[in-house]
Every structure is written in C-alpha cells, then in structure tokens.
Amino acid sequence: MKIKIIFILLFCLILFLFFSINKKSDQLEVYFLDVGQGDAILIRTPQGQNILIDGGPDNILLYKLSQALPWWDRTIDYMIISHYHADHYMAFPEILNKYKVKNILVTSHQPNDSLYTVWQESLSDKNVSSQIVKAGEIFRIDDDLSWRVISADFKHEDFNDNSLVIRLSYREINFLFMGDLPTSGEERISKFDFDLESEVLKVGHHGSKYSSSDIFLSQVKPQLCIIQSGEDNKFGHPHKEAVARLESVGCKVKNTQNLGTISLKTDGHELYYDF
Ligand SMILES: [Zn+2]
Ligand SMILES: [Zn+2]
Known about the structure:
By secondary structure, this protein is α/β, with parallel strands linked by helices. It has a single domain, classed as 4-Layer Sandwich (Metallo-beta-lactamase, Chain A), CATH 3.60.15.10. Helix content is 29%, strand content 24%. The protein contains 9 helices and 15 strands. The protein has helices at 2-21, 60-68, 86-89, 92-98, 114-126, 183-190, 214-220, 240-248, 256-259; strands at residues 28-32, 41-44, 50-53, 75-80, 100-106, 131-132, 138-140, 145-151, 165-170, 173-177, 200-202, 224-227, 252-255, 262-266, 271-272. The strands form 2 sheets. The protein has an 8-stranded mixed beta sheet, with helices on one face. The protein has a 7-stranded mixed beta sheet with strand order 7-8-9-10-11-12-13. β7 (138-140) and β8 (145-151) form a beta hairpin. α4 runs parallel beside α5. The protein is globular and about 70 Å long. 42% of the residues are buried. It binds zinc ion (2 copies).
C-alpha cells in the first residue's frame, strides 16, 4: 500500500515538473535584485532564457538569484558585465561555479587588480571565454525580443564612463540599463542615432548626482526609474538632485534600498508591478 502511494506521488511530481518546465508564456520578467550597494538585474525571457546584467558587490547575489529562479533552472544564457567595478561583478566567479553560463558579454576596458585576476582564473578554470561587445551591436532572441548595446568602451580613464549601456526591447516596451554611466557618457550617447526612449530606466550610477542629466532624461522619457543602492551607503546614493531630475520628467522613482528586490512583468504592451 505504501509503495503504491509513493508511486502515485512520484507520478504527480513528474507531471508537475513536466508542465512547469514546458510552460509557455508571453511574459518577460525583470528582477532588480536587492544586492545592497551594487547592480544585479535578472531578465527571464518568455522562452525561459536567463540574462543577468551585473553581479552585485558580494555573494548575496546567489541567494537572491535562487529566490527569483525555479530551483531546477541552473543556466544563465547571457551574463553581462557593464564594467569591471567590484559592485558589478563580485559574485560572478561564484556564479560560474554554481551555474552553467553560456555567453559572457563584457567591455574591453580591463583593470589590473586582484578581483580581475580572480575573474580571469575563474574563466580559465571553467574553460569559458568572455566576448567583448561594441556600441551598436544587436543581440536578437527572436522577432519580439532583442537588445542593443548603446554604449561601450570609449577609451576613457574612468571605468564608469565605459559602462555597457543596454537597451532591451520587447515588442512595444523598452528598458534602458545604464550601468554607472555619468553625464559625460550620457552626452555622448545623446548624439548617436540610437533610439533611447524607454519606459523603464535602470538609473545610472545608483542615483549619483553626476548621472541622469535633464537633457538625457528628456530623450529617454522614462515612466519608471529604478535605482539600485544599498541602505546607509557611504556615497549617499541616491542623491536628492538626481531623484528630483527623474521626477521632473514624470518618472516614478523606486529604489531597491527601500523596496528590496523589485520585479516587473510585461507582455510587451503593458508593464505590470505591484507598487
Ligand atoms: Zn556601481
Ligand atoms: Zn562603477
């Protein structure tokens, strides 16, 4: 009798797993993970692919990621490092240990420090390589979903100024991920011929007052502005002047510091969130 019950339970579990894994949806999910003072954004495509932009300031990312992903999903299809500052990729060596990472996209502006050495050793241990991307490159998942690299390495001394800026488009909804780009970089990309208008803006440099200029925001016209910063951080991010500029273009400003992980969903026409 006991064996019969165990078999029935096992059968139900297999059925549940089968339908969960094969579940088709047309929802794109974006998680601004609460990793403290640093960036980490998980994008789950309707096809079930995982894109991870930046890797936070420590291994708390692994815990936050496990909360957002189903337990059986151990694949990162694209790992993107906006720039090589510790608060943007500290957890990535450990992610390489715990997940199967298929593609790694990076900037060509490389540092000469101990964290970067650890990162290079992790890559060679796992026998994977990173791919340098350039401004203008387009990555297409399908007809509805793609992203463009808006800005990349422009040979500035400042790593923030060489941040990869990514604009992801799903049907009619666009997301702009700024890395730590300062106003000088914003000025540069404003002059490019790329469409910058985006419903959601991942605010540059954790809401620093040296990012998010009026001119730039008037081009982006964001409706929802997400800041990733840590509680009581020593930089005073976000700066009230930057927040005022975001609000002056009518953007709703939300911060992981106050809300924890911020998750959004979209079918490509409407944005869904619960705040
Ligand atoms: Zn940063
Ligand atoms: Zn930085």
